[in-house]
Specification:
The structure is a single chain. The chain is α+β, with helices and mostly antiparallel strands and about 220 residues long. The chain is built from 8 helices and 8 strands. The longest helix has 13 residues. One of its GO terms (biological process) is protein K48-linked deubiquitination. Belongs to the MINDY deubiquitinase family. FAM188 subfamily.
């Protein structure tokens, strides 16, 4: 049954009453959520959002595409992580390819290990979301970083030294992981050798806070 809601309050009430359908093992919560965001955007509009109308939300080996990730994060199934759009001219003057990126700041952001490897460049719309919460794309799955201080994304002075909390649902994480990020530690040098064992999460963090010192506060770093 497809449910329609005319107000945010009605939607929130429905989710509170039925949250177990989305969270319990074996209930298909991820698929239910995906159906919800697709029908909220409408199928034709999802296709229009993509670089190609034949684009897919599910890629090879069952992995979600960037189109699906952006649909969840921004409400639009754009195919890229940079800001706005890029026009590529074929050189003939008549054939222009448009690559569609994120069109504005989202509530939740994104940090990607692919940027560290120079496979992409995440734009400021995703790096500086409206709330200090970032989905982290690393090591073939997604996890989350967040701060409990909203001023982190509105006051540059708050970015000098701050805490981020990390959660990995796929790993069924039980313990709290709190990272202290120091962007003004003059004595810290970013590891430069490929032989240095640097946690991928630190690489992701430094795509936004370049050169930052990451203190795991006694937790064993996730290599």
């Amino acid at each position: 049954m497809l449910n329609h809601f005319k107000s945010y309050e009605d939607l929130l009430g429905f989710l509170k009453q039925n949250v177990h359908h989305f969270m319990m093992d074996g209930t298909g919560g991820v698929i239910l959520t995906l159906y919800s965001v697709i029908f909220t955007r409408y199928i034709d509009q999802v296709r229009e959002d993509m670089d190609e109308p034949t684009g897919k939300l599910m890629g090879a080996h069952g992995y979600c595409t960037q189109d699906m990730v952006n649909l969840y994060l921004t409400g639009k199934a754009n195919s890229n992580v940079f800001n706005d759009k890029i026009e590529l001219d074929s050189g003939t003057g008549s054939d222009v390819t448009i690559l569609k990126g994120v069109t504005g700041r989202s509530n939740i952001g994104l940090l990607s290990l692919f940027e560290h490897h120079k496979s992409c460049q995440v734009g400021t719309y995703l790096k500086t979301p409206k709330y200090p919460v970032w989905v982290v794309c690393s090591e073939s799955h997604f996890s989350v970083l967040f701060s409990i201080k909203k001023e982190l994304i509105s006051d540059w002075k708050a970015e000098r030294r701050f805490d981020l909390y990390y959660y990995d649902g796929l790993a069924r994480q039980q313990e709290e992981i709190k990272l202290t990020i120091d962007t003004v530690d003059m004595g810290f040098k970013t590891p430069s050798s490929e032989e240095d064992l640097v946690p991928p999460l630190e690489h992701c963090i430094r795509t936004k806070w370049s050169g930052a010192n990451v203190d795991w506060n006694g937790t064993e770093p996730l290599l």
